[in-house]
Each structure stands twice: as structure tokens, then as C-alpha cells.
Amino acid sequence: MVPKIVIINTRAANVHSVDKALRKVGADPVITSDPQQLISADAAVLPGVGASDSVMTALNSLRLTNPVKQFAASGRPLLCICIGLQVLFNSSEEGELPGLGLVQGSVQLIRPGMKDKFGNQMKVPHIGWNEVHFTDGETERNPIFKGIPQGSHFYFVHSYRCVPDEQSEIAATTNYGVEVCAAVVRDNVIGTQFHPEKSGSIGLQIYKNFFNLTLSVQQ
Amino acid sequence: MLTRRVIPCLDVDAGRVVKGVSFVDIRDAGDPSTLAAFYNDEGADELVFLDITASSDARNTMVEVVEKVSSEVFIPLTVGGGIRSVDNMRKMLEAGADKVSINSAAVINPELIEECAKEFGSQCVVLAMDVKRNIDETTKQYSSSTTVEGISWQVYTHGGRHPTTLDAMQWAKRATECGAGELLVTSMDADGQKTGYDNSLLSSISDSVSVPVIASGGAGALEHFYDALVYGKSDAVLAASLFHFGELRVSEVKSYLEDRGIPVRKVE
Fold this sequence. Notes:
The structure holds two protein chains of two kinds. By secondary structure, chain A is of the alpha/beta class. Chain A contains seven helices and 13 strands. Chain A has a single domain (5-218), classed as Class I glutamine amidotransferase (GATase) domain (Rossmann fold, 3-Layer(aba) Sandwich), CATH 3.40.50.880. In chain A, the strands form three sheets. In chain A, strands 2-1-3-4-13-12-11-8 form an eight-stranded mixed β-sheet. In chain A, strand 1, helix 1 and strand 2 (30-32) form a beta-alpha-beta unit. Chain B has a single domain (5-259), classed as Aldolase class I (TIM Barrel, Alpha-Beta Barrel). Chain B starts with a strand and ends in a 9-residue tail after the last helix. Chain B has an eight-stranded parallel β-barrel, surrounded by eight helices. In chain B, helix 1 packs parallel to helix 2 and helix 2 (56-72) runs parallel beside helix 3 (86-95). Chain B is 38% helix and 26% strand. The chains are: A alpha/beta, B alpha/beta.
């Protein structure tokens, strides 16, 4: 049976880009904000762009906050992207609303003022393709990063960075004057600060891996 | 390290890519999807689509173009041209655009930037500005601020046809305060001339805002891209006809930049 992948529609995310990327790798996702659909899904994606409060407000008002937490606890694959990753944390400097608290730690503003090697100011937001360094053994250990070469470039757009309490939950980092957490893996909960759906063929590989993960979990 | 972006710009008229020289003499240069796939393979870091027709039928054609391109090419897409409202912007984002650029409508109503940023986040809102150097006293009187070497720049709207009283530096600051997440700065003096970007303009703007600046207008040779990134302090470089007519390839530009120590993303 084709696994049911739900793209959680918070109306504050690029759900359509995620949908297109999943379709490109052979999945047949459903874009929905219906808690019942999420509960019955084999896997889910929590995308997010914009501000963390807008995502949390949407989750709260759509009565999705608890279903997302329960989904995460159920062991089924949950892929969280950009702000989707940031709302997994307890709190964010960006907003007032508490996050989902699925990963312990905080989300902090990347402070402008760092300089690059030409002496130019580094800008905030951090926009563009940056090199991602996976933690030792991560690309072999973790099926979601299978086949991704160390140092691959991924597309980032964000002003805040995640700071998990547990260093071991950081699966990858990137450098932007400061070390920026690029990916978090906590059991079945996977989060990327970058946008795999906008990172060309290397990004599609992550969706492919996610789809394969969903198939293996389902069996 | 964050790489500098090389961005082909596709001017679209009724579903076909065209590019004018200095905003006139428009020629047809091809199909958007074909070009997008080609540029993706070449290592383009992003694509900008500018809808240069204003009629409402063409707007729907643009939605279809974006819909099709974003199903095939998985790199960031910016769409602009004739965006006048939050609803126009939503339509483009839903079709698969990642960012929307606004130009004339933002000059007329700067609150539009705020509304769009509030609705979709600053990262979706690119302010595009077409600017021209003030060359005589008649135009200079409009502008109070003078910057690099006594030069000041004036903002134009409607594809460069209408001068405004806005000074480019002041407008850039204002727009970012309103929530623009990126600036796409086109020098009308340099556009189509192939003699290089207006680096004093770019560096002045880049120094006065905290958001990334995309350089546009004037690329004609490999060193122009380097100059815009280093002397113009730009975060990204954009070019159109140079790429569309195959005079330079995106991959060549990237190799050139890489050889000179600029971090770029290479595709195999």
C-alpha cells in the first residue's frame, strides 16, 4: 500500500514546494490541517517559513499542537523544516509563544556584525547555499542522510538558529560566522534548518530517503 | 561558508522569455521551463522570473509558468512584475514561488511591503528597485542625500519609465525597515551596457542595509561578477541576456569566481 504522508498545512509555510518535491520522488502526499488525517498518517512533514509565532498560532488554532506531539511520540517519521524545526524547541527569541518542546533547547537570533574574509558584513537573514557538515558517521548511521556527501550545499533562509541542550542531537552544522545547527535528529523526529525542497538534486535525495524510511516503517 | 549566488533572470512576456537592452528593443529568448531546467543543470543558485506584461490574462499565464517550473526545478524561484497586493503575492507563492519581488506598487504604497512581510514573512519579500544616477542639477534637487563621491541615485518605477522623488539609499533603508528581506538593485545606467555593474551604487546600498543585496544590470564579462561581489559588496549577482544568448555560461562564471577565492556552489 502507498504510505500516507501528510504535509501539515499551517498556512504559514511553503507546503506546495514540499508537495512537489515529494511527488518528484514518487510519494503521494496529502496537504491538510485536519488533525484526524495526521493521526492516521504513516509519516508527516511540518514545513514552515516566516515567523515561529505564526506557525505556533496556526497549530494552536487548528488544534494541531497535541496531535503533532502525539505523532512525534508514536515513533512514525516526522520531518520538520526550517521554522518547522524551530518550533520543536521550548522557546524562541523570535516569538512569545512557547514551542512544542519536543527538543530541549532554545532558538536564538543570529546577530549581525560578523565579517567575511573580504571584510564585508555578514547579513541577517542568512540566505543562500551553505556547506553542511554532518556529525561523524551521521550519513551512514542515519537513513535520512544516506548518500549525501559530506560538505554538500543546501539552501538556507533564516534569521534564528537552534541551540539544542543536548549536543548529541545535532546531526549537522553549517558555518555563518557562528556555528549554526543545520539538522537535528531525535529518534523519529528529523529537523533541517535548510530547505531540502529548494536544494536541487541533493535536497531531493533527502525526500527520497524520507519516502524510503516511510516505506520501511510501514512494513 | 555561505556561497555567493549566481542568478539568471528571465523576463517573461505571455509565457515566453524575453530580454530588452536598456529596457527597450525586446527580443524573444525562449521557453521558461526549458531555460529553468537548463540553468538548474548549469548550477544556477536561484531563478528570477519577471513578468513584464501587465495585462490580467498574462498574470494567469505567469501563474502557470511558475506552477510548471516549480514542479520540475527544485531551486529557489523569485517571481516579480506587476505584483500589487497580498493576494497577487499569495497566488504566486501558492503556484510554487519562494519569493515575490515588488517594485512600483511598493513605491506607491510602502505599507504593501509590511503587509506582505507580515503575511508571509520577510524572507518571501524581495524589494526590486530600478535606479538611475542623478546627472544634472534639475534631477539633483529631488534628492537630499549625496553618497559615494557625491553621486546620488534616483528611484524609477514602471519598468524605468517613471522617475520618482525617492533617493535610492533612503528607499533601500525604508523598504528594509518595512520588512523587505532582500533587495534586487538594478542600475538603469548600466543595464544592457555590458560594461559592469554600478559598484558604487551596490556598495552604498549594501552598507546601508542589513539584508542581502542582489546586483543587477551591466554584466558583460567574467570580472564584472567578481567586482560586484567584492567591490559592490553584493551577496548575489544577476544577469539575463548574457546567459540567455550563451555569451557566458553560469558554470563558467562560477569557475571564474571560485578560482579567485569567492565561495560558490559547484554542481557535478
